[in-house]
Amino acid sequence: MESDPNLSFMEKLFHLKEANTTVRREVLAGLTTFVSMAYILFVNPQVLGAAGMDKGAVFTATALSAILGSVLMALLANYPIAIAPGLGDNAFFTYSVVLAMGIPWQTAMAGVFMSSILFLLISVLKLRELVIDSIPHDLKLAMASGIGLFIAFVGLQGGGLVTASKSTLVEMGSLTVPTTWLTIFGLVATGLLMAKKVPGSIFIGMVLTTIIGLITKLIPLPKQIISTIPSMKPTFGVGVAHMPDLANPQLWAVVLVFLLVAFFDTAGTLIGLAEQAGFMKDNKMPRIGKALMADSISMLGGAVMGTTPTAAFVESSAGIAVGGRTGLTALVVSAMFAISMFFSPLLSIVTTNVTAPVLIIVGILMAQSMKQIDWTKFEIAMPAFLTIVGMPLTYNISYGFAFGILFYPLTMWAAGRRKEVTPIMYILFFVFILLLYIINILPGK
C-alpha cells in the first residue's frame, strides 16, 4: 500500500512522528486554539476603535497579522503557538497613549512602528534568545503557572463566575444571570470529559456549550453568514507616514514602553507554553530564535497594516492541551483566520461564555508546573510565588514577570548564592525598574 503523498509532505515539513502526534490531532488542536482566540477579531477593533481608528480596517489588519505571525511560527519554528495582536498593548495604546496623553492615533501608530523595528533588530542580534536562556528554571516554571492562573482568572471573569466588587475587588458572580449558567454547563461538561480522558475534550466541550447556547437562545443566531472583507485603506501605512512625528521626545517614552512590554510579554508566554508542551531541554527552548523572529516580523507587519503589537497568544495552551505539538497546529490557526475574514458574522456565536470554560480548564493544566518549583528554598520560593500571583492580581503577564526578576537577585544574594545569578539577570533587574517607573509616570496612571 502506497503512502499518502500529502501525509509524507506533512511529515517532512513538521516532523509529526518525532513529536508523537498526527495530522488529525494537530488539526483539532489548531481548531481549538483558533476558537479560543477568535475573540481578538472583535475585541481588537472595539478597543482601537475607541482611539478613533476605523473598526473595519482594524478587523482586517487583525486577521492578516494573525495569519502572518502564525504561518511564520509554523514554518520557521515548527511550534503549535499562534500569534495575533495582544490585548494588553491595544489597551495601553488606546487608553494611556491616545486618550490620556492626547496623542493622535496616527502618531501613536508611528510609535508602534518604530518599536517594531527595534524589536526586529534585537531579535536578529539574538539578544532576546540570550535573555530567555538566562532565566532560572524555577522562574520559568513560575511563569507557566502564573500564566495558568491568569488565563483561569480571565475565564472566571469573562464567564460571569467572578465579578468586580468595590469593597473586596472581586466577588462571586450572580447565579441569576442566565449566561453564567452557560459557563457553568461548559465547565462541568468539559471537566467531566477531561476526567474520563476523552480525546478532544476541550473542543467537544466548546461545541456542546455553543449548541446549548443556541438552543436556549442565550447565544443569538447570526444575522448573516458571509460578509465582504473590510478595506485596510484607513489604517494601512499610517504609522510609516507619521514617522516624522517621533521628533517629539515624549513619544520615545511610549516607544520604549511598547518595546519592553512586547519583549517580556512574549518571552514569558513562550516559556510558559514551552513548559506546558514539554519542549524545554536543559532549561532552554529549542528553536526559540526562530520563534522570536516569527513574532518580530509579524509585529512589524501588523504595525504597517494598522494594528498594535502582535504577541504569542496564551490561548495556544488550549491547542497544546488537546495534543498540538508542531507548527501544523499554528498553520491550521492561520487558515481559520483567513476563512474568518469571509465568515465574520458566524464567529459571533463564540461568546466569552463559550471560551471561559476552556480558559479555566487550561489554567488548571498549566498550574501543574508549580509542583516542580523548589519551594523548600525561600530564596527561590519568594520570587516564584510573586511571579505566579503577580500575573492574575495585576492582570498583566509582564508585571508578574517583573516581580520575579526584581526579587530573584535580592533573595539569592541574601542566601549567599550570588554566584548563581547571571550578569543578564542583574541587567534585567535594572531594566524592569526602569520599565515600571516609565509606566507609572505616564499620564492616566
TrEMBL record:
PANTHER family: GUANINE_HYPOXANTHINE PERMEASE PBUG (PTHR43337:SF11), XANTHINE/URACIL PERMEASE C887.17-RELATED (PTHR43337). It is found in: Cell membrane. It comes from Companilactobacillus farciminis. It is a multi-pass membrane protein. InterPro entries: Azg-like, Azg-like_bact_archaea, NCS2. Belongs to the nucleobase:cation symporter-2 (NCS2) (TC 2.A.40) family. Azg-like subfamily. It comes from the Bacteria. The chain crosses the membrane at residues 27-44, 56-83, 103-127, 139-163, 175-195, 202-221, 251-271, 292-314, 346-368, 380-411, 423-442. GO terms for molecular function: purine nucleobase transmembrane transporter activity. GO terms for cellular component: plasma membrane. Pfam families: Xan_ur_permease. Its main location: membrane. This is NCS2 family permease. Keywords: Cell membrane, Membrane, Transmembrane, Transmembrane helix, Transport.
